[in-house]
Design brief:
This protein is an all-alpha fold. It is 38% helix and 0% strand. It is built from 5 helices and no strands. The longest helix is centred in the C-terminal third of the chain and has 25 residues. It is flat and about 60 Å long. The two termini are 38 Å apart. The model has no long low-confidence stretch (mean pLDDT 75). Keywords: Mitochondrion, Ribonucleoprotein, Ribosomal protein, Transit peptide. InterPro entries: Ribosomal_mL54 (IPR013870). One of its GO terms (molecular function) is structural constituent of ribosome.
């Protein structure tokens, strides 16, 4: 396909020109604006302190707005959020710990997780065995 495009366009234009491709490299912002002779990659401007009061920070989700005309959402009291939200960051047992326990005593969620992790480990082991041959 590339050769047929080249024949159609002739020898005067290159493929870049024909398709409007621009092969330019862009650099990080502020690269040309930094001081000459400055060493390191640090910026010349120190970070500014936040202009928001502590009260605003504790009652709103700062930068939580995704709409042009909207405003940052307000934080609700803890009891208005669902119960599962508070357990998202709980530590869960790894596969080695789940193997040590009796499957009959495991709760349903841990049993599902054990089956998933065990299956994943067996797949990885089978793939590594096939890759060596």
């Amino acid at each position: 396909m590339l050769m047929s495009c080249r024949r159609l366009l002739g020898h005067t234009t290159t493929i870049r020109e024909a398709f409007g491709l621009s092969w330019s490299r862009s650099f990080a912002a502020g690269g040309a604006k930094s001081k000459k002779g400055a060493k390191g990659g640090g910026s010349a401007v120190a970070p500014k302190a936040s202009m928001l009061s502590k009260e605003v920070k504790s009652t709103t989700v700062v930068s939580g707005n995704i709409l042009k005309d909207g405003e940052d959402p307000k934080l609700l009291p803890d009891f208005e959020y669902p119960d599962w939200l508070w357990h998202l960051l709980d530590k869960r047992l790894p596969l080695s710990e789940l193997k040590r326990k009796d499957p009959k005593t495991l709760p349903y969620e841990d049993l599902r997780r054990y089956a998933k992790l065990d299956n994943r480990a067996r797949i990885k082991e089978n793939n590594s065995m096939r890759a060596k041959n």
